[in-house]
Amino acid sequence: MSRDIQLKERWEKLVDILSNQFSQGEDLDLDAIIYLIGVQELGKVHRQFKKDEKLNLMHIAICRLLEPYGYYEFDFFDNEGWPHYKIKEQLPPLKAGEQSVLMKEAIVNYFLERKLIE
Asked: Residue 4, class by beta-carbon neighbours within 10 Å (0-12 exposed, 13-18 middle, 19+ buried)?
């Protein structure tokens, strides 16, 4: 099976699982899934977040997702328990479609590690 087909199938399965769990079956988009990963990484799942905190959660998720690719490295937790990352290598310039594929691949890998999908 080609890598692209496998990624597409895994992505669709993951969207289905997360959408059923978090949005009554309405498909979650890429940003919503990144937000959920940020909440998971912060570990404060039963809390309301302000708008700026939601952006920070998405940043945490992106850093965590791209860490295995060598772009970010975990640095420390601050006094409030928020993780901080440092840039190891700048992301190369990517077109919108390439960014989307990279993030979907990173998200699929994240959930493969957690055994939510196979």
From this structure: exposed
